[in-house]
User: Which sequence fits this backbone?
């Protein structure tokens, strides 16, 4: 039988060769015509007749001009960008074929070679003329519920063992890209995952490959791909109903064990909707503080302390634009709309090399893309706030617009209270966000985001405070080749605050402050091989700070106008990193960032005596700098190195070391973040902050990824931390360097986390033991605090426990609980008093020598989802929650006043009684 087959193939080859000698030459032209019309024109000029299936030729346009050219060469050119091949017989018939081709002969060793297609991956050398690719027609995959697709076409003159398949994975319902989706080739030890834009690239053996996809909240799929050459295949995947079952903050599969970067957490908004939070507001940043290593100075405090770092050491990004004050309503709510947010990736250990300018963490928050298929939205109604987000296609399947808005109507609550001071108070906020995403073609995509938030409040009858955030960002993603992609990002952010004072005295005023920054960044990704994945790029950021101005309010005001001169600084950086897979067990992520900062004029810089404290008595001279003249420069290399080693397939150990520079500082004498905190750029007298951190951790998954366990320790050293002198005047101070001091800091801790991802009972338990210290030492007493010894920082809380649990009674009904315990933060207490000139004065202890009482709180909620019918206008979700069920009077601060000659201590609390809430959400 073998001999008969070979003889037949050789006979066909001889006949074809004879036919080729008689192929006539013709002259013909086509200009953007249907390929079917082109074939009919060839038939009219020759004796050839074409045979094909009509479906193969749909929507194919061709162009070309040919003079005295063989028909075979014309067809080669016409079909070069299609999956069509052709075969010419001796009797002038031309058969069109899709993907494959007809062979006249077989390679000499075709029946004797052992592996036509090797299973151990695409690492073989190119081999010419492997012979025909056979597909088992009886095992099409359809019978097993798999879709079968053919990619590319055969070319006998350039056959390789492996080709590249790439494409994009999107949500079939929303059209949004699906990031971090696992793509696995069954039986071949090959796989990859999608990037943030849903794109993937995979090198596959030629022939049949069964590709399986797996992702959180996405139905698993299996597809048989018959690969003939390089090609593109896009997956449209359906959501899994089981996504509603999840509450757990988690990444995809065993991401926590596999990745090399330490201290990274992925939070998805949909997975936190059952966590009971104050006043029923779903809040992605408040959910973050239930995780180890992230905390706040107190209930209602704005800003976040990450691994013993200050609040100004966190880079909070919304679609690559910076948000300086991420809080609303005295810190009770975050300024990020939960319905418009897709996810947040928080880096608190080894920060990727592309990020810089902050020491402790990066909150990389991404707004979800609008729905390109249909109009949709989500809304909520609560006792204090209402929220709505709408998504609409602009060009179907290509572009969409998302618009969201959130506002409070809290004034009626304040006016209904018995407290006269609060009864006359006002507090309101709103935020709006808009995002436009447009897929131009397979290689280009643009995204634009605009955001604005504003808060206004008055606790006293004579003062109105307001602050606002604004940002715009534009991102262009471009695919240069199968292995190289890039993004060009431009953003502008602005933060303002103001105080309007209108009292009974003649000192009414209007005060304003503004901080603005503009950044442009280019970042590239190059998939060199399975072992090396490079990220590299550059960025530049211009800071413009208006430290404040004050003007009299009204004609009778005795306030003198004052404007503090503007500050400017330029921060630039180049960065590169390589994710290097040394072997199956060891993965190293090594990065280097070099940052450079220049303080710019126009400015007047004060020069002080070199060996003396900075005060008016040691001022030597004032040096003037022209506009954009360089005042001082700082900079240096920043290493970002981490490694992961598998102790077992589901058990890894990770380690990292990194350092960073920060060129902008906050000026505050408050324990917690205040809307009136100002920012100060490094200059001739104030050096940039610098930090070094090392971490080591163990990560274990068990029960088929049902449980995740991690234990990570860290040590952080900081220099040039900016602090304040006793009695410092920080606002509207032209010589601010005389009111502040710079010192050292250190922080260390251990973080423990166990999570249960599935089952009726799920949630997580986190425990952190951490310490944070500051050292302010100087030869001069006025610049020395606590005798120059290390003392606890304002946010030093050794013990922090968080328990989040959700129990599902049915698919629609569930109950949730949230328990928090924290050591009380440090405070400074008066320890004595003395009389002077018939007045009583307080003598205070060393700074932060005492602590306020420990904090603990229990929240409960009952959650009810609407029915799960697919065909209905909207899916609803009710949440009945009680915040602070135990009615614990947790102190927010402790302060002292003198009454009738006696010093009395008082404590203030934010929520000292249980706070019930009913919130209604619906999604359509």
Assistant:
């Amino acid at each position: 039988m073998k001999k008969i087959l070979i003889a037949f193939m050789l006979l066909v080859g001889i006949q074809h060769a004879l036919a080729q000698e008689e192929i006539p030459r013709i002259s013909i032209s086509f200009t953007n015509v249907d390929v079917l019309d082109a074939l009919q024109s060839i038939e009219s000029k020759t004796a050839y007749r074409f045979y094909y299936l009509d479906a193969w030729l749909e929507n194919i346009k061709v162009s070309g001009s040919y003079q005295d050219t063989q028909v075979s060469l014309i067809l080669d050119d016409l079909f070069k960008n299609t999956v069509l091949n052709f075969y010419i017989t001796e009797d002038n018939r031309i058969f069109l074929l899709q993907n494959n081709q007809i062979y006249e002969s077989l390679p000499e060793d075709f029946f004797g070679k052992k592996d036509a297609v090797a299973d151990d991956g695409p690492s073989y050398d190119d081999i010419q003329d492997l012979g025909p690719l056979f597909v088992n027609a009886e095992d099409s995959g359809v019978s097993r519920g798999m879709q079968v697709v053919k990619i590319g076409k055969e070319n006998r003159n350039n056959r390789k063992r492996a080709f590249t398949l790439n494409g994009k994975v999107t949500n079939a319902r929303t059209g949004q890209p699906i990031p971090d989706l696992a793509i696995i080739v069954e039986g071949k030890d090959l796989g990859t995952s999608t990037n943030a834009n849903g794109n993937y690239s995979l090198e596959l053996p030629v022939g049949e490959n069964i590709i399986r996809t797996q992702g959180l909240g996405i139905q698993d799929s299996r597809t048989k791909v018959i690969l003939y050459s390089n090609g593109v295949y896009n997956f449209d995947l359906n959501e899994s109903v089981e996504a509603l079952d999840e509450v757990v903050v988690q990444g995809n599969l065993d991401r926590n064990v596999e990745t090399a970067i330490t201290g990274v957490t992925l939070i998805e908004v949909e997975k936190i909707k059952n966590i009971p939070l104050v006043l029923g507001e779903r809040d992605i940043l408040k959910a973050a503080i239930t995780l180890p290593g992230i905390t706040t100075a107190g209930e209602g405090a704005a800003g976040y302390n990450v691994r013993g770092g200050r609040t100004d050491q966190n880079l909070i990004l919304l679609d690559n634009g910076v948000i300086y004050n991420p809080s609303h309503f005295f810190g009770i709510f975050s300024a990020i709309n939960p319905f418009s947010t897709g996810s947040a990736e928080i880096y608190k250990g080894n920060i990727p090399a592309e990020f810089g300018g902050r020491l402790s963490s990066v909150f990389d928050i991404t707004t979800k893309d609008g729905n390109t298929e249909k109009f949709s939205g989500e809304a909520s109604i609560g006792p204090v706030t209402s929220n709505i987000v709408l998504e609409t296609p602009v060009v179907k399947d290509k572009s969409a617009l998302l618009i969201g808005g959130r506002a409070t109507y809290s004034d009626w609550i304040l006016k209904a209270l018995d407290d006269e001071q609060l009864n006359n108070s006002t507090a309101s906020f709103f935020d709006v966000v808009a995002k436009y995403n447009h897929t131009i073609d397979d290689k280009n995509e643009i995204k634009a985001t605009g955001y604005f938030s504003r808060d206004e409040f008055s606790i006293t009858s004579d003062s109105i405070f307001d602050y606002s955030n604004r940002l715009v960002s534009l991102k262009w993603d471009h695919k240069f080749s199968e292995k190289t992609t890039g993004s060009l990002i431009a953003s502008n952010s602005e933060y303002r605050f103001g105080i309007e004072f209108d009292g009974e005295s003649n000192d009414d005023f209007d005060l304003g402050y503004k901080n603005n920054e503009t950044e442009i960044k280019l970042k590239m990704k190059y998939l060199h091989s399975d072992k090396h994945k490079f990220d590299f790029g550059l960025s530049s950021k211009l800071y413009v700070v208006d430290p404040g101005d004050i003007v009299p309010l009204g004609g009778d005001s005795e306030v003198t106008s004052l404007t503090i001169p503007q500050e400017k600084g330029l921060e630039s950086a180049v960065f590169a990193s390589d994710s290097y897979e040394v072997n199956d067990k060891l993965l190293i992520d090594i990065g280097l960032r070099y940052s450079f900062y220049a303080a710019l004029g126009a400015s007047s810089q004060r020069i002080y005596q070199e060996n003396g404290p900075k005060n008016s008595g040691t001022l030597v001279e004032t040096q003037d700098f022209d506009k954009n003249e360089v005042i001082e420069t700082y900079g240096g290399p920043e290493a970002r190195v981490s490694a992961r080693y598998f102790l077992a397939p589901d058990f890894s150990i990770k380690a990292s070391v990194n350092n960073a520079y920060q060129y902008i500082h906050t000026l505050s004498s408050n324990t917690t973040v205040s809307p009136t905190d100002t920012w100060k750029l490094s200059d001739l007298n104030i050096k940039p902050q610098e930090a070094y951190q090392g971490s080591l951790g163990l990560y274990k998954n068990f029960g088929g990824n049902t449980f995740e366990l991690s234990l990570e320790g860290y040590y952080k050293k900081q220099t040039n931390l900016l602090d304040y002198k006793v009695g410092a005047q920080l606002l509207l101070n032209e010589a601010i360097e005389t009111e502040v001091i710079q010192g050292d800091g250190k922080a260390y801790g251990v973080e423990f986390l166990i999570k249960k991802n599935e089952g009726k009972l799920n949630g997580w338990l986190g425990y952190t033991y951490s310490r944070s210290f500051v050292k302010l030492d100087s030869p001069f007493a006025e610049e020395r605090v606590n005798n120059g010894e290390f003392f606890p920082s304002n946010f030093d809380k050794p013990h922090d426990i968080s328990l989040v649990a959700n129990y599902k009674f049915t698919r629609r009904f569930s109950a949730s609980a949230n328990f928090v315990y924290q050591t009380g933060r440090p405070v400074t207490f008066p320890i004595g008093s003395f009389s002077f000139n018939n007045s009583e004065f307080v003598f205070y202890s060393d700074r932060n020598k005492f602590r306020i009482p420990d904090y603990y709180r229990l929240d409960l909620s009952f959650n009810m989802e609407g029915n799960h019918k697919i065909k209905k206008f909207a899916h609803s979700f009710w949440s009945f929650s009680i915040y602070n069920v135990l009615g614990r009077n947790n102190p927010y601060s402790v302060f002292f006043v003198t009454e009738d000659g006696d010093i009395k201590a008082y404590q203030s609390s934010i929520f000292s009684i249980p706070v019930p809430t009913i919130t209604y959400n619906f999604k359509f």
In short: The first helix runs from residue 2 to 21. Residues 255-923 form a domain with the Maltoporin; Chain A fold (CATH 2.40.170.20).
